Amino acid sequence: MKTSILLLAIFIYGCSGNTATPPPPPPPALPVASVAQSSETTFTEYPASIEGAVDLEIRPQVSGALDKIYVNEGALVQKGQPVFKINELPFREALNIAKASLQSAKAALLNAQLEVEKLTPLVANKVVSDFQLKSAKAALEVAKANVEQAKAGVGTATINLGYTTIKAPVNGYVGRLPKKQGSLVSPADPLPLTLLSDAHEVHVYFSLGEDDFIAFNAKYPGKTLAEKASKIPGVALVLADQTVYAQKGKIDMVDGQFDKQTGSISLRATFTNAQGLLRSGNTGKIRLSVEHKDALIVPQSATLEMQDKIFVFAVADSNKVKKVPITIIGRSGSNYLIGEGLKTGDQIVLSGIDRLQEGQVIKPEKAAEKVAQLITK
Question: Does the predicted TM-score (pTM) go above 0.70?
């Protein structure tokens, strides 16, 4: 019995000693490529609002009944063209009264002059006292002042009568017409009669945060903001339907101070609008372009984002991979432009990075000699 147990133990030991350890799995074969330099253009977009070169509120300057409306909503009008007509009858009568007052004042002036002329020789011959002549001369001055006041009254009445015809102060497009014919209008009305927008060119306003504004100043040469603005190339306007406006614009204004509530500063770009495609109140985006010469680029698909940082797996000695943090300075299509973390010639893994670990050995497959060449294919 003991002999059988001993033989069984020897048999089990012999079997376990002959079992071979399985070999480790081969390193994964992953595509790698060299980082290379390339000249790229990146774009940054900022929300923008569009205003006409001149946006005016058309308001009445006298009160009265709106007698006529000469234009339709949305019509293009020329400078000096009549737009509205306020009933002029009360103002014409006021002008007639002012003219009558002027005639009366002139008659009083003539009477005062005659009185002075009559008393002058009498005073010289000592027929009447000098006091009477002085009183007559004072009355003459009052009569002259009354004539001037009456002339001013005629002028005021003439101006008010002219205000009954409201003309377009500039070329532009008519907005909505909230008041209809027959409505009573007044300079104190909360709403204007209409808005008039001169949009032969438009001003597009957008804002930059403090960080973007500092970077904006660093990109362009010049000692002053005006000099920097003159060196900025034409900017593009992306419309609400994501199409790009055919004409390039020019940045011609930088606000004098930051908005304390938003922490941003406003800039203005001006675009020509000869065809009238843009209207005041449109929205869009201003697209700024920046040229990057000899920039290092990597595909976004070759990067890994962890805890607000972006990494790539670089191939080190003995084909071991190393997780390297990189600094992004821009985007061009599906590529990242690298500021720090890599240098020309570094090998990076292009795909399969979600399964890699720090220090893991791989079998590099050179799918392309350079990342830049791979991207352009």
Answer: no
